Amino acid sequence: MRPGLPSRRSLLLWLAGTAASRAGAQPGAVPAWPNRPLRLVLPFGAGGAADFVVRLFAAELQRGLGQPVLVDNQPGAHGNIACAEVAGASDGHTLLIGTVGTHAINPVLSRRLPYDAVRDFAPIGLIAGAPLVLVVNVGVARSLGVRSVADLLRVAAARPGRMNIASGDNGSPAYLAGELFKRLGQIDLLHYPYRSVASARQDVIAGNMDLMFDDLPSALPRIKAGKLVALAVAGARRSPSLPDLPTVEEAGGEALKGFEASAWVGLFAPASQPPEQIARLQHDAAAALAQPGLREQMNALGLQPQGGGARDFAALIATETAKWARIAQLSGVKVDR
Q1: Per-residue pLDDT tens for 112-137?
Q2: Sign of torsion, CA 63 67 68 70?
Q3: How far, in Å, are 146, 196, 203 from residue 211 at the CA level?
Q4: Which of 3.40.630.10, 3.40.190.10, 3.10.20.740, 3.10.25.10 is the CATH number of 131-256?
Q5: Overall pTM surpassing 0.90 (yes/no)
């Protein structure tokens, strides 16, 4: 071998390394994803039913993705803070748990959202739904003989302006449902929106408020414990958790025909997320939601486990936005978030 020339072994190693380098850099090569933990930004505080079910879902989702899926609670501003952050995220590992509030109600009630619910997000899939349930204080039910929706309409009509209804906050599903119930039932209830649904619920239990529309997962243990009296669920059909409880439409007669108010949560990615990553998320989210154990836990909480593809989810959002716009119009609610 001449001095200064590489050995045969060195030359072969160099050629192998060059080939590998070219293969890794060839056009069309897709880097591995996800390559670090994903973050699910949730516009609720910790400890509620939504937080619990999202954490169950995240645990199943990470099995398919092969990376930790962390839940980041960012409550406040009706979900605007969480949505604005995810809409502008470009790291490929930040996702949003969107709700009926962030993607169907806020766009109807606000003219100055810091995000566009349609343009800024790619819907991945619907996770769970939860009907609202109409509940009354135990003492009110006993003393006024309110054991059904018909009873409530009769008693409230005889006591105009003397009964009150609580709700979580202005523009929430429960708030709009309460206003619609007043309007369609032609009754005069004093409406008191609270800063949180938990505070409203506690005052109904304590007797400071007469009734409210509550989310079923949160109200269910209080109903079973006898702390609240349930009159009807506001879903399109009866709940498996309370199969003997009628819907508002069933119990309210012609005046409340078509009455339906439910909450839901779903998974969204920023609209800038690459299509192949969105497809991966859709596949793994559907697989997570198909797990029997997860579905059983959701049912036990009073939630309705969902699933389906991104197209169905996008269609639901469009339908829900139109529905809540009609409810806001019928109820006369004017809230600018």
Answers
A1: 899 999 999 999 999 998 889 999 99
A2: negative
A3: 11, 15, 9
A4: 3.40.190.10
A5: no
